[in-house]
Design goal:
The protein has 350 residues and is α+β, with helices and mostly antiparallel strands. The chain is built from nine helices and 14 strands.
Length: 350
């Protein structure tokens, strides 16, 4: 039995970048902020912008820009510690939620707020955080095993339904890691988000609300899918043109498709092996069968179900291409400068 699973093209699910505004020693940020504050205030009055109140913000001005497609971009301007921070503007957004025209609209509003040098700054953005994601359509988390190369730590997030264990996700990495790689049930996430919206904004009649919650609990969205994410949490101001030189972290994932054809095991051995995999990981589970009469068949069971639909080799480059397709950055931002000289902070921001 072969699965008819499909892996989507990569998307950019989160992006945080720095623009090197006001970095020159000759720049006085307080002076630079005077016209910027005036323009932000005007944007708020027009309903284009909204104040953002952030705990521990490292910038003087924090606000959101509302985009036509319904998403927002968080913008922070005026570094509190310009001598230590890599730039005076930070932008955080989710390009996956962009609709047609959102990128050009954001650039237009930012140009109006920052001034005529905005597009020069966009030629040299520094990436602080970036998340790439692909969806495996038709995939059930309960019918896959996943391993991840080079993971020193990983977490299994499980939810018990009756006597069965339903795996909702795997996190590979630690809180302090530069990267976190994640596999999770996208349907569960969407159900959870829908329930929160229902509780916050939904039916006011208690009986109706209870019925809707029950429907969400037993219902499914259009099609099962698992999401694979590579989250670059600490990119440390990486120039955009260097992103495609990084290792392909999608290649570290390896999938076993339990619904594909392969060597069979007696039900009690199969159940024991899968339980060990979900409790302790595949590597530990295979190790537990060493020096037993089932070691060869268990290894063959796992090996013969290797997922043929998972072909990660081109995914990193495709993900990098997806950034260009957003239409937010100019083409020069993706090219390595042949010569970098002079003080790039000496520009007219007013």
């Amino acid at each position: 039995m072969k699965n008819n699973l499909r892996v989507s093209n990569p998307i950019v699910d989160r992006l945080a970048y720095i623009l090197q505004w006001g970095r020159s020693l000759s720049c006085d940020q307080e002076t630079l902020l005077i016209p910027v504050r005036r323009r932000i205030k005007k944007g708020i009055e027009l309903g284009v912008c909204e104040r953002a109140y952030l705990k521990g913000a490292r910038y003087h001005e924090n606000f959101k820009i509302h985009l036509p497609g319904g998403s927002n971009a968080l913008v922070q301007i005026g570094a509190l510690l310009p001598e230590r921070q890599k730039g005076g503007i930070r932008v955080v957004l989710n390009p996956a939620r962009f609709e047609s025209g959102d990128a050009s609209r954001l650039n237009k509003i930012m140009r109006n707020i920052v001034g005529k040098s905005y597009f020069d700054l966009m030629e040299d953005p520094l990436i602080n955080q970036i998340d790439f994601a692909v969806d495996i359509w038709g995939a059930s988390m309960d019918r896959m095993l996943v391993t991840y190369k080079n993971a020193q730590r990983y977490t299994v997030i499980a939810k018990r339904i009756n006597a069965q264990g339903h795996i909702e996700g795997y996190n590979f990495g630690s809180v302090s890691s530069d990267y976190m790689s994640v596999l999770y049930d996208k349907g569960c996430e969407r159900n959870h988000a829908a329930l929160l919206r229902l509780i916050k904004n939904g039916a006011q009649i208690e009986g109706l609300k209870s019925n809707l919650v029950k429907q969400f609990s037993i219902g499914k969205f259009d099609q099962q899918r698992a999401r694979v994410e590579v989250r670059g949490k600490k990119m440390r101001g990486l120039p955009l043109y260097k992103l495609d030189r990084l290792p392909n972290r999608f290649e570290r994932f390896h999938f076993c498709d339990l619904d594909s054809d392969g060597i069979e095991l007696p039900p009690y051995i199969e159940e024991a092996f899968l339980a060990l995999c979900r409790q302790s990981g595949v590597k530990a589970a295979l190790s537990n069968f060493k020096n037993t009469e089932w070691v060869r068949k268990v290894n063959a069971y796992y090996r013969t179900r290797e997922a043929g639909w998972w072909r990660p080799e081109p995914l990193w480059q495709e993900a990098c291409n997806a950034i260009r397709e957003i239409g937010l950055f100019p083409d020069l931002a993706f090219d390595e400068p042949k010569l970098r000289g002079g003080d790039q902070g000496l520009v007219d921001y007013l």
